[in-house]
Structures are given as structure tokens and as C-alpha cells.
Write a structure and sequence with these properties.
By secondary structure, the chain is an alpha+beta fold. It has one domain: Gcn5-related N-acetyltransferase (GNAT) (Aminopeptidase), CATH 3.40.630. It has a seven-stranded mixed beta sheet with strand order 1-2-3-4-5-7-6. Strand 3 and strand 4 form a beta hairpin. The longest helix has 12 residues. The two termini are 13 Å apart. The N terminus is likely disordered.
């Protein structure tokens, strides 16, 4: 399980922060990339703006570019990560870890759930490995994705 003392990421000027409306154009650039793994995401812009307005969107940004972002449930339990994605050109640079550190800071207690890819989905390995490094455990299959793809429920029990 990962819990390093230093949470700095070389080349990223902002580690993590709540997302704001200025982030929307750059964040929406991630959607075509994410749809290759997640499947179609209709009306994502509306969902993103709603999350920003509610304060449930977290972003790692480098100047004006969103390197990665997450949409979260409200702060009541159960805690759920609804969407987490890292820009392809920013992977393996600690962006996903920065997002998860921000989520752990936001929710210091209580279980955290996330639905992610099964081992059978090529391209989903990085997401599974990230969650596992942070102590999330696979609880097996859950409701399929909107496109019918198989998904697993991962839970960080605390």
C-alpha cells in the first residue's frame, strides 16, 4: 500500500484542488480519450458542471491543462468515486496518486468504493493497479457498464 510522506509530482505545478468552471474546457478534452475505455459518456459536460457546482470534482492541473480529474459522491457515506481519469500524456507521473491522496484527505474515515475495469479489459490494468497500490481490494463483479462491459467493485475498507 502506498503512503509516501512526500506528495510532490515533478512537472505538475498544482498537486490537487477542487475543480472550477475554468477547468471545464481542458477537462472535456479528456472525454474522447476516456470513452475509449469507459464507453460513451453522453452529457458528461452537464455532469461535470453539476459536480463542480456541488464541490464534488477534484482536479490535478498544470497551469491551464487538466492532467486528471475525479468526480465524487457527496461527503455522506458511503463514499464513492464515480469517475477518475488521467490524461494519456500525463500517466506514470503521479497524477492518479495525487487524485487519490486528495480523495483520502477529503474522506479520512469510512470505506471508499469505486467501480473499475475487470482484468479482461485491455487498457484497464493501470486503474486496477493504482487502486490496489492504495489498498483497495476487488470485491468481484458488479453491475455492467452502460455499454454492457464487465466491471469490478473495488473497496478501500477503513
Amino acid at each position: 500500500m502506498i503512503r509516501p510522506d512526500a506528495r510532490t509530482i515533478p512537472g505538475v505545478s498544482t498537486i490537487s484542488r477542487p475543480a472550477n468552471r475554468d477547468d471545464v474546457p481542458s477537462w472535456l478534452e479528456l472525454v474522447p480519450e476516456a470513452e475509449q475505455l469507459f464507453g460513451p459518456m453522453p452529457a458528461f459536460d452537464i455532469r461535470l458542471r453539476r459536480s463542480i457546482d456541488r464541490g464534488t470534482a477534484v482536479v490535478v492541473a498544470d497551469r491551464d491543462e487538466v492532467a486528471g480529474g475525479a468526480l465524487l459522491s457527496r461527503d455522506g457515506e458511503p463514499h464513492h468515486i464515480h469517475w477518475l481519469y488521467v490524461r494519456e500524456t500525463r500517466r506514470r507521473q503521479g497524477v492518479g496518486a495525487a487524485l487519490l491522496f486528495a480523495i483520502l484527505d477529503r474522506w479520512p474515515a469510512g470505506d471508499i468504493e469505486v467501480v473499475t475495469f475487470t482484468v479482461a479489459l485491455p487498457g484497464g490494468e493501470a486503474a486496477r493497479a493504482l487502486y490496489e497500490r492504495f489498498g483497495f481490494v476487488s470485491c468481484g463483479r458488479t453491475v455492467p457498464a452502460p455499454d454492457g462491459g464487465a466491471r469490478d467493485l473495488f473497496v478501500l475498507r477503513r
